[in-house]
Amino acid sequence: MFKLGFNGGVYFWLNTQNGKMYIGSSLNLSKRLANYWETSPRCTSIIRSALLKYGHESFVLIVVFLNSALVIVG
């Protein structure tokens, strides 16, 4: 496993069984991605449902880091 710290960025999950892709973003990738391994029934996102249905082993996770110095807010 890799350490993301509090870096924000964009990520996507690719389902290797059906080719479907889920794209997401977060200001805290470490926290967001950790949520995908929780078994809490209150999380009902499309990707969580797919992860539970097909299993994590059926997905490839690709993370693209964003340099916060390049992000313009306003």
UniProtKB/TrEMBL annotation:
Q: Which UniProt keywords apply?
A: Mitochondrion
List the molecular function annotations (GO) for this entry: endonuclease activity
InterPro entries documented for this protein: GIY-YIG_endonuc, GIY-YIG_endonuc_sf, Intron_endoG1
Boundaries of each GIY-YIG domain copy? 6-74
What is the name listed in the Swiss-Prot or TrEMBL entry for this protein?
Answer: GIY-YIG protein
